[in-house]
Specification:
The protein has 116 residues and is α+β, with helices and mostly antiparallel strands. The protein has one domain: Alpha-Beta Plaits (2-Layer Sandwich), CATH 3.30.70.120. It is built from 3 helices and 4 strands, in the order E-H-E-E-H-E-H. A 4-stranded antiparallel sheet has the order 2-3-1-4, with helices on one face. A hairpin with an 8-residue loop joins strand 2 and strand 3. Helix 1 packs across helix 2. It is elongated, with a radius of gyration of 16 Å.
Length: 116
């Protein structure tokens, strides 16, 4: 499994999430939060502060590249401050509600009442 953290422009959050959701009936859950970012844009010396949105998404390995491609396509404006994407390995995932683990814990298909 992979965790994708994407820092994108706040105005693009809903659009990017909609595009991820539209990829299939098995779309991953997305956590979104507003963050303050401190960094050095290309070719600048002073530290700049800006506001971005952070998307956190855990997906099965085979779904990671598709989600990354969607973020790249729909969050890119071509201007400084578009953000960044980081991908890390997830060694374990546990769904608190039902104790499902790993691949089953990140599977987002809605269960029928009483089945989980």
């Amino acid at each position: 499994m992979k965790q994708i953290k994407a820092y994108i422009r706040p105005a693009l959050v809903d659009h990017v999430i909609d595009m991820i959701e539209d990829q299939s009936a098995d779309s991953p859950g997305v956590a979104a939060s507003e963050v303050r970012v401190f960094g050095h844009p290309e070719d600048t010396d002073p530290l700049e502060r800006t506001h971005l949105a952070k998307l956190e998404i855990v997906v099965r390995d085979e779904d990671a590249q598709g989600v990354i491609d969607i973020i790249l396509e729909h969050a890119q404006t071509g201007r400084s401050g578009d953000g960044a994407i980081y991908v890390t390995e997830v060694t374990e995932a546990i769904r608190i509600r039902n104790g499902k683990r790993d691949r089953e814990a990140v599977h987002s298909v809605v269960e029928e009442p009483g089945s989980g």
